[in-house]
Design brief:
- Helices cover about 50% and strands about 10% of the residues.
- It contains 30 helices and 17 strands.
- The relative contact order is 0.07.
């Protein structure tokens, strides 16, 4: 018995120990600390998945061939650099699985649910997990099917399923059984059910909207009935007016009605009584300017004798042969074939497309050969061909081939004369046409700066950046009249744009009374950019008054005499701001210059102001995120490293260029390789001399006068008891010459722009000059020195 008792006790003790162990383990996994750790891990995994999926939109197209043709184990063993996804090889596989094979873009709902779950476990938020799961799952499935239904015809035009493969399978099944209308009705019904579950106020709102109420018929077939009702209402109103004990107004037959003083809004009464004769502001301004009598306004009549430059002013380069030697093509084909076969890559065919600087070889590999293998052989192929650099495009966009761009041994010169005289440029209808050069297929490459809307140019020293800027300016000089286009040229190096000073009165814009139209001083650059911001704001006001959306509609309305110049309206020329050596300006002026540039780049497109900035230092502190976001069109000449190429284009390639005008043009995801047209200094001088010798405007296009906020902001806050020591001298100079501006004072007295601005505010407060009226400048209110002496005497008292 005693042994049995001992055995039972030992068994009980063992079971208690086991129960205590399991309790401790259960307590550990249910403790707050473990919940926090699990929630933290889930949050990190969620962030990783979000970054991978966001990167998929930028790198999924390039990574797709690798991810689809390999297993997860093979993908994990791929070398670094072949996968472009920000989260590495596994991230590329994970993002492709989520975005392509699961539910597409709506998968972010479920990813968000797991993020909220992690925060819930960490006790950072309090949510109903079950309810959130059902809502996010429903939103994911519905969104996937909706995107598949809406974009069912665009699958072949993109590199992934927007609604995911599951969404497309569900949509196809529903389409087969319900048809397109049935699927649409089902989606709307599920959406309404979903909204009702989420927010109970949806039901009464829908009931109020769907309630049938009697409204006046608006259809054309009920037009007569509507007129009868209006006549009955007018008769009832007249009877009510007759029944009123005190008439509100008296209307005489001779149209000299007298208004009785009653508490009635006269403006509203006038509009109500004269509704058929109501006119808008635009109609009022058009009355004295009838197009039938004056004809359509032509801005080119201001310089009616102006002649555009001739093609003969550009140099023609005689080339003995426009084609690359056939022996060179065959030799390169054979070397490419041998190099690829040496690494176990059989080739089916090779096609050559000859360009002025490079030749594009389109390779079709044998079936079963991965593209990643060929991409890794870039340097080996360059060594085999003895070329400066080979750029591989794998795969070619829209083609089932792999492109290899190989430099020609004897590159051709693309002259500016050949592209300017081309039919494509001559017949162009672009607002701001720019012809840059020729593509790898020898086609003339053009684009419209008005649709860019801004351009970023970057490249290492001596690779053709300055020639590219001159080609851009020359293109516009050959197409746009001086009345239709103005340039603001910023040249910190003081030698690049100096040649364009002779066309100041034709094409250039500058601050009032500035000595030079070419801006070289960093301080003047800041004031010029601020002036452009004010010009932009003034133009937006004119667009608002004219009830139009952009400069094209405004100028068209002005040409048709629908806008009155006496009301402040004017024809708006396009303004193109070209800034060379942007990196030097950032180093000297910093954020003070980046802010107005970003503001102009964000808003100025609609008012016809476009920016072109160039730099030879494509680093992240120069080309910041703000600049890249507002300059979607980019030109990259040869750079020294892949990092610089990614900074400019968000992709490699610019480091593989051959230089001497070889460039990559980017507007979105697609890159185009172009050989920039060559234009030398002699050609530019011939064009500028031809334009400068013609009759121009009286002055350069005046920009609004502005100055720093520290220099004052208006005459109302100026204290004339504490006048500047130069106040009297400045007043005498302004009255003597009958003109005054801050720039003029700055030049005459050798003072800073802020002090000159304070002096102008004091002169305005004293009544010597008027307020600044934008580009019109200030008016001198005193006619002679006698009036000035009397005014100074009163101020001294």
């Amino acid at each position: 018995m005693s042994k049995n008792k001992k055995q039972s006790k030992t068994k009980k003790s063992e079971t208690k120990e086991k129960q205590g162990f399991f309790k401790s383990v259960a307590h550990f996994f249910t403790s707050h600390m473990m919940h926090f750790v699990i929630g933290l891990l889930i949050s990190f995994i969620t962030i990783y998945a979000v970054v991978a999926c966001v990167s998929f939109f930028f790198s999924g197209k390039a990574d797709q061939s690798i991810v689809n043709n390999n297993t997860l184990i093979e993908i994990m063993s791929i070398k670094k650099g072949l996968i472009l996804n920000w989260t590495g090889n596994f991230g590329a596989y994970l993002s492709d699985t989520i975005m392509n094979k699961w539910f597409g873009i709506p998968s972010f709902f479920m990813i968000g649910f797991f993020g909220a779950l992690g925060w819930r476990l960490m006790r950072l938020c309090n949510i109903n997990v079950f309810k959130w799961f059902l809502l996010c799952a429903a939103a994911t499935i519905w969104g996937s099917v909706f995107l598949a239904f809406s974009l069912s015809g665009f699958k072949d035009e993109t590199y992934f399923y927007v609604g995911g493969r599951h969404g497309y399978n569900i949509n196809e099944w529903l389409m087969n059984n319900l048809g397109r209308i049935g699927v649409l009705m089902l989606l709307l019904a599920v959406l309404v059910l979903f909204l009702v579950i989420v927010n109970s106020k949806i039901v009464p709102w829908m009931q109020s909207k769907l309630t049938i109420t009697r409204k006046p018929p608006k259809a054309k077939e009920y037009k007569e009935e509507e007129e009868e009702e209006e006549e009955e209402e007018e008769e009832e109103e007249e009877e009510e007016y007759r029944k009123e004990p005190e008439p509100q107004y008296q209307d005489n037959d001779d149209d000299t009605g007298e208004w009785v003083t009653v508490p009635v809004d006269e403006d509203k009464r006038y509009i109500a009584d004269n509704q058929p004769e109501r006119t808008t502001d635009t109609q009022k301004t058009t009355e004295p300017y009838d197009i039938a009598t004056l004809g359509e306004y032509d801005p080119r009549l201001d310089l009616s004798s102006y002649c555009f430059p001739e093609i003969g002013m550009l140099k023609r380069y005689e080339m003995p042969d426009n084609q690359v030697d056939k022996d060179e093509q065959n030799e390169n084909r054979e070397r490419i074939r041998k190099t690829l076969e040496k690494f176990g890559i059989p080739i089916e065919s090779i096609k050559a497309t000859v360009g002025p600087t490079i030749t594009l070889y389109e390779v079709v590999q044998a079936q079963g050969v991965r593209i990643s293998k060929i991409r890794n052989l870039e340097d080996d192929i360059a060594q085999s061909l003895k070329a400066l650099g080979v750029r591989i495009i794998a795969p070619m966009p829209g083609k089932g081939t792999i492109g290899m761009e190989v430099p020609n041994k004897k590159p051709q010169i693309v002259s500016m004369e050949s592209v300017i005289s081309s039919r494509k440029f001559g017949e162009s209808t672009y607002e701001l046409p720019i012809v840059l050069g020729r593509t790898i297929t020898n086609e003339v490459f053009m684009f419209d700066l008005a649709k860019m809307p801004h351009l970023l140019v970057a490249g290492a020293t001596g690779q053709g950046k300055s020639v590219g800027l001159n080609a851009i300016i020359t293109s516009l000089l050959y197409k746009k009249h001086p009345a239709e286009l103005k340039f603001v040229l910023v040249d910190p190096k003081m030698v690049e744009f100096n040649i364009y000073e002779d066309i100041e009165r034709h094409y250039l814009a500058k601050l009032p009374d500035s000595e030079r139209a070419i801006i070289t001083d960093p301080d003047k650059v800041i004031f010029t950019l601020k002036s452009l911001c004010r010009e932009m704001d003034d133009r937006y006001k004119l667009l608002t008054e004219a009830h139009v959306r952009n400069i094209a509609e405004y100028n068209e309305k002005f040409k048709n005499r629908q806008l009155n110049p006496e009301k402040g309206h004017r024809f708006m020329p396009y303004i193109v701001v070209v800034i060379d050596e942007f990196g030097d300006l950032i180093m000297t002026a910093g954020k003070e210059i980046e802010r107005p540039i970003a503001r102009i780049a964000q808003k100025a497109r609609a008012v016809g102001m476009h920016m072109i900035i160039a730099t030879q230092r494509p680093t992240t502190n120069i080309i910041t995120g703000v600049i890249k976001a507002n300059f979607p069109a980019r030109i990259a000449f040869k750079v020294s490293s892949m990092i610089d190429s990614r900074t400019i284009l968000d992709s490699p390639g610019a480091n593989k260029l051959v230089g001497r005008g070889d460039l990559l043009f980017s507007q979105g995801n697609e890159l185009q390789r172009v050989q920039c047209a060559l234009i030398n200094t002699d050609e530019i001088e011939n064009i500028i001399r031809f334009i400068g010798n013609q009759v121009g405007f009286a002055t350069a296009y005046p920009l609004p006068e502005v100055y720093d906020e520290e220099g004052g902001g208006g005459g109302e806050s100026v204290d004339l008891t504490n006048r500047d020591p130069l106040f009297e001298e400045a007043a005498r100079m302004v009255v003597l010459h009958q003109q005054g501006s801050a720039s003029n004072l700055q030049r005459k007295f050798s003072i800073g722009y802020n002090r000159a601005g304070k002096l102008m505010d004091q002169l305005q407060k004293a009544g010597i000059v008027s307020e600044n009226d934008g580009s019109k400048g200030r008016q001198v209110l005193l006619q002679d020195e006698y009036q000035l002496e009397q005014l100074l005497a009163r101020l001294d008292k």
